[in-house]
Write a structure and sequence with these properties.
With 332 residues, this protein is α+β, with helices and mostly antiparallel strands. The protein has 4 domains: 5-90, Arc Repressor Mutant, subunit A (Orthogonal Bundle), CATH 1.10.10; 95-134, no CATH class; 150-236, SH3 type barrels, CATH 2.30.30; 252-329, Alpha-Beta Plaits. The chain has helices at residues 5-18, 27-41, 50-61, 95-108, 119-127, 153-162, 233-236, 263-268, 295-303, 314-329; strands spanning 25-26, 72-75, 78-81, 166-170, 179-191, 194-201, 208-211, 215-220, 252-259, 276-280, 284-291, 308-312. It has a 5-stranded antiparallel beta sheet. It has a 4-stranded antiparallel beta sheet with strand order 10-11-9-12. A 3-stranded antiparallel beta sheet has the order 1-3-2. A hairpin with a 2-residue loop joins β2 and β3. The longest helix has 16 residues, at 314-329. The radius of gyration is 29 Å and the shape is elongated.
Length: 332
């Protein structure tokens, strides 16, 4: 039975009143109470009409799949549950409700192991759904369950929420040794199936990011927490692709020439929110994006191979050209 938010609120409200074992409701009083609460909840001038209220009562009485099978009795101006222990909240899930919840859990299983989603296992247990039962999923998201560092997500989420300084033991791909430093965490961000932690590293003034797959250990730190009082993360990444924000670099207009065969992919999935179409003909499409060129943009361009050519700016074109020459040299 599809139920909108307003109707669901009314049914729960009526149920909570009729479930009160030590209070007898008169029909007119319950109507007035529900109408007043609906007006407050949904910020409307009038609550519900007597006709709507009667329809709700009638529907709640019906058996599944239309209603809840509620034993509502109206007698001598009083309205009550014939079974004082009844509540729609105590009713077992219907098969259609189980199916809908099953599908929802299949989608949410993408977030397995992430903070604030620990409740999923409890729901599965109560429904008798194990991990195996979710394999016949209807929707698949891109994910990497073997990604190193995922085990730190819940811990880092709590440290960010509680504004705790932590000690990070970290080893970059270019280093043979592990280094440790105090870190004030601000934000967890996912990009290209990798997780990054942003925050303040002791001794460095600019925002610092740490890939979770390079973290070796996280411990508590006695250093004071340095709060973020200047950066708005809802806007911080607006002018870049990915997670690398080049400090002190200006936004530039990057002009690309894309093959006609590949352009539909870029048109339907833009490289960046600023993407604009300059010219389209039978063989190519010329587009522009306004971003701060970075490593992630280079990777996207290389991934498209000979279907894309950088026209502007000249320095970025030259940089990519040099990398192509190095690549070409490896195949000679």
């Amino acid at each position: 039975m599809p139920i909108n938010k307003n109707a669901s609120y009314r049914y729960r409200l009526i149920d909570s009143c009729l479930s009160q074992k030590y209070k007898k409701w008169k029909y007119k009083d319950l109507l007035a109470h529900v109408s007043e609460k609906v007006a407050e909840e949904f910020d409307i001038e009038k609550g519900i009409s007597k006709r709507q209220f009667d329809y709700d009562i009638q529907l709640m009485r019906k058996d599944a799949p239309q209603g809840f099978g509620a034993p509502i009795v109206r007698m001598n101006e009083e309205i009550y549950y014939e079974d004082p222990n009844f509540s729609i909240l105590n009713q077992p899930l219907r098969e259609d409700e189980k199916a809908q919840l099953y599908e929802a859990l299949g989608v949410l299983s993408r977030f397995e192991g992430m903070p604030q989603f620990e409740w999923m296992e409890d729901i599965r247990t109560k429904l008798g759904l194990g991990l195996e039962s979710l394999k016949a999923e209807l929707v698949q998201f891109e994910s990497n369950p073997y990604l190193e560092g995922r085990e730190y997500l819940s811990l880092l989420f709590e440290h960010i929420r509680q504004k705790n300084t932590i000690e990070i033991s970290y080893q970059s791909f270019r280093s043979e040794s592990v280094e440790s430093f105090p870190f004030s965490p601000y934000l967890l961000k996912e990009y290209n199936n990798r997780w990054f932690l942003f925050g303040h590293r002791e001794g460095i003034d600019i925002l610092y990011n740490v890939p979770l797959d390079r973290i070796k250990k996280i411990t508590n730190s006695d250093y004071p927490y340095i709060e973020n009082k200047t950066l708005d993360f809802s806007k911080y990444f607006e002018d870049v692709i990915g997670v690398s924000v080049m400090q002190g670099k200006a936004i530039e207009k990057v002009v690309l020439c894309v093959s006609a065969q590949h352009y539909p992919y870029i048109k339907t999935k833009p490289l960046h929110g600023s993407q604009k179409e300059i010219e389209v003909n039978q063989t190519t499409a010329t587009i522009s994006i306004e971003v701060i060129p970075n490593f992630e943009l280079e990777k996207k361009i290389f991934a498209m191979g000979d279907d894309v050519e950088i026209l502007k700016p000249a320095w970025f074109r030259e940089k990519v050209k040099n990398r192509i020459e190095i690549l070409w040299g490896k195949y000679l």
